Amino acid sequence: YVGPFVFSESSTELDVCPHGAIGVATTGTISFIDRDVPAELNNADGARWKAEKGTEWEDARMLVAEEGEFFFPGFVDTHIHASQYPNAGIFGKSTLMDWLDTYTFPLEASFADLATARRVYARVVARTLAHGTTTAAYHATIHVAATNLLADICVERGQRALVGRVCMDTLSPEYYRDESVEAAVRDSRACIAHVRQLDPRGELVTPVITPRFAPSCTTPCLRALGELHQETGAWCQTHISENAGEMAMVRELFPDSADYASVYDEAGLLTPKTILAHAVHLSEAERKLVKRRKAKVSHCPASNTALTSGCARVRELWDAGITVGLGTDVSGGYSASVLEAARQAIMVSRHVAMTEGDGAKLSTEEVLYLATRGGAKVVGLEDKIGAFKVGMQWDAQLVGLGEVAKGEEGKIGEDGPVDVFGWEQWEERVAKWLYNGDDRNTKAVWVKGRLVHYRPEMEHRN
Ligand code: GUN
Ligand code: ZN
After folding, report:
1. 348-373 tens-digit pLDDT
2. CB distance 138 to ligand 1 below 6 Å
3. What is the residue extent of each domain of the chain?
4. Per its UniProt record, what InterPro entries does this chain match (predicted)?
């Protein structure tokens, strides 16, 4: 009945609990955590243990991890363009602004067709769940029907999500832009209403106001969206200071604003419910402003390297007191995997360290914290998800690493890409997973207690 699990709670330390057991109530919340279950109860006399638990056991299921497996909090992807998924891995030699024109706008425009949207959105939700993403902050497109469909699919598949209809009323192609400020507001309202009607208590999906970024929105549009943010209480997500060309445009388009962050601030879009993607090149004054407004940052390392945008400094953001999570930023980022984003976060931090010193380096624990607890804070769900604690929701993944069987060393089986030889400490196993693992190691995924994905080889254990 019991197995080892690993979790991180209030600190960035991994909490390793090799003989623990977790109870999950039918409501989807964690009802008990036993840190030290007697070894003799392992896969044996569960009845006695259940009796000892008494009422705590009633109405709860106990989740099983077998030898070599551990539970880990589900990943939070704080920035992903669901509509761009078909282009994941396709970006040539572009940098941001020409990449938008060449690859991104034509693809997003195709979501006027609902059948196209259905095909892509069904796959991106299935794919991210398979990678252990239990919560995603999605940018959709400007289309109301397609954006609403994405929210429907999230609810159907059981993924927690923030779903945003993209607003862009200027400097965008004729074939793909909001025709007016009024249209941007009207269509944003329509999506907010749909998502709220779909999930009135916001238990799984919530709407998020999504001005694409300052260059593609006029000042009146940004202001109107700021008012909508205030009026509806819906979250806001956008991009900031990703790339030099983009920043030059912002300086030219908004000459009266002190800096990029002030453009959003002056429009009422920099609040505790704002997620800013990238933040690669923020000045010290901007970091102070973001901190003062309690806005959050989504660090997107794979994208920042792929589009040669730059190296964001997580340590610097943390030192400024800013809350940071991870984003895959598909398809500026090539992978929908948050584990890949965590791996890239650690590598980028080491590139920074080569010129700026060891202080910049992030650890295994720190990037996995960004992927879970940090992300939960970015989307305002830290009381519910991102760690294992009684009363929190069971948003989790069961991770399995393949142990090299004696006498079978030359044989590659179905165990996935991580080879464990048996001598590794738990922290070392987790590090091996971070550096070499992929979705083959994510054996099963739960959101709010519901099993939302499992690997084919898990069939017999359900
Ligand atoms: N800035 C404006 N739009 C986008 C986008 O779609 N992706 C990224 N990475 N940056 C942007
Ligand atoms: Zn983005």
Report:
1. 999 999 999 999 999 999 999 999 99
2. no
3. 5-72+389-461, 75-378
4. Amidohydro-rel, Guanine_deaminase, Metal-dep_hydrolase_composite, Metal_Hydrolase, Metallo-dep_hydrolases
- For residue 145, CA distances in Å to 136, 187, 191, 284, 304 come to 19, 10, 8, 41, 31
The CA distance from 387 to 394, in Å, is 9
Q: Is 0.80 surpassed by the pTM of this model? A: yes
Residue 307 CA, closest ligand 1 atom number:
9
Q: If you take atom 8 of ligand 1, which residue's CA is the nearest one? A: 332
Tell me which of 176, 177, 222, 242 to substitute to probe ligand 1's pocket, judged by most ligand atoms within 8 Å of the beta carbon: 242
Backbone φ and ψ of 79, nearest 5°: -160, 105
Show the tokens assigned to 422: 């048996």
Hey, whose CA ends up nearest to atom 11 of ligand 1? 239
User: Distance, CA 339 to ligand 1 centroid (Å)?
Assistant: 21
CATH for the stretch 5-72+389-461: 2.30.40.10
ipTM: 0.99
Q: Going by DSSP bridges, is the β-strand pair 324-326/296-299 parallel, antiparallel, or unpaired? A: parallel
Does 303 contact ligand 1 (Cβ within 6 A)? yes
Taking only the tens place, the pLDDT of each residue in 75-102 is: 999 999 999 999 999 999 999 999 999 9
pLDDT for 183-232, tens place per residue? 999 999 999 999 999 999 999 999 999 999 999 999 999 999 999 999 99
